[in-house]
């Protein structure tokens, strides 16, 4: 690492997390209505971008704890009480003589848990993308299958393009699974990429000095999901849908998802066309600044603190655009939509709790009274009014990095993560927030989430 880059990284650790200046949580006043918008999709190429690199280890944290301690916590009881309701039960039964097991017996429970996690099925080290989530009359599906099926319903055009970001160690398993799908679906085009090595970040010790390995080399670690901005930047389609790998629903319950995705895209197309028109007017010096100001404040929900001129108007308008679905806040861990003060203006941002100063009572109150939650449901427009691709790296706010405490071989360290993909990495995008039905949000953070309504057949 060059000395200037080394100093820059060390300075970030010494400065610590730079809290965003949140004015308020987004209310219905800042939302764009999910109307029956109509748009011509035929002029646009589309792709779906699915972060899918994580192993399912954390999904099974309660079972791991049970194997270690033998203590049956409430989640463990729920798991074994409903074992036959999981889509992977048939596969488990094929690997273990499960009909001879007593689901209430600690020893038999341990045998079953070990078979699922470590031995016969190795689910603990399987990518979440390849875990069996849903069951149907004649087949079972993984999140990959469901992401493809869903994409077929709203990605217009003869060709369906999906891009998954995966972990390198899972490449062979991913390819083996996907090749079978592609053989049956000629119209589905699946590509994948890894988090790029140059996005790894330096770790430091608790004194903010470079964390050195036994051989004297500095330890570098993956830079969090914000590092995927590089991968997203490589996607060449006009419109990119972003959704986490585990946020899928049973096919009997995806109507709301398909409808809302189409409407989010239609809203985005309408706004993008307005943006393009105003940019053309500005460049031709045939513009109404008051009309443009009204668009910036009322459609983009940007509050200006200084006078608007042509140059500023072009800066605000000529940026990537994202339309973000938000859902009612029901206490899920994660980020949310907020109004952020950037100095000369306030605009709409997705912020994580870690970016908020919890020592400030006003910020705590804003967090506790937030009406909406970020389910990671984005439709991104990444080309300018002439169809030229934006360099997305130019629109990140590098000051919105994260610092977390980790360990390496038992030694404590501090890790640096890039600004989150839908947080600081998209700080300088135009943002539209739209409330979507809660039925479109079905994340699987723990295995028992698969027992929820969204993952069961109606």
Short description:
It is built from 12 helices and 18 strands. The protein is an alpha+beta fold and 458 residues long. The protein folds into 2 domains: 3-56 and 141-455, Spore Coat Polysaccharide Biosynthesis Protein SpsA, Chain A, CATH 3.90.550; 58-125, no CATH class.
Protein architecture, described:
With 458 residues, this protein is α+β, with helices and mostly antiparallel strands. It has 2 domains: 3-56 and 141-455, Spore Coat Polysaccharide Biosynthesis Protein SpsA, Chain A; 58-125, no CATH class. It is built from 12 helices and 18 strands. The strands form 5 sheets. Strands 2, 5, 6, 9, 11, 14, 15 and 18 form an 8-stranded mixed β-sheet that branches. A hairpin with a 2-residue loop joins β16 and β17. α6 (143-154) crosses α9 (255-283), α9 (255-283) runs antiparallel to α11 and α10 packs parallel to α11. The longest helix is centred in the middle third of the chain and has 29 residues, at 255-283. The radius of gyration is 23 Å and the shape is globular. It starts with a helix and ends in a 23-residue tail after the last strand.
Sequence stretches where pLDDT stays below 50 over 5 or more residues: none
The mean pLDDT is: 94
Please work out how many helical segments DSSP would assign.
Answer: 12
Helical fraction: 25-40%
General shape: globular
Based on the structure given, which CATH architecture of the largest domain is correct? Alpha-Beta Complex
Overall number of structural domains: 2
Q: From the 3D structure, determine the CATH topology of the largest domain.
A: Spore Coat Polysaccharide Biosynthesis Protein SpsA, Chain A
Radius of gyration over all CA atoms, rounded? 23 Å
Largest sheet: 8 strands, mixed
DSSP E strands, number: 18
The H-and-E topology, N to C, reads as: HEEHHHHEEHEHEEEHEHHEHEEEHEEEEE
- The CATH superfamily name of the largest domain is Spore Coat Polysaccharide Biosynthesis Protein SpsA, Chain A
Top CATH class of the largest domain: Alpha Beta
Distance between the termini: 55 Å
Q: In percent terms, what proportion of residues is strand?
A: 15-25%
Structural class: alpha+beta
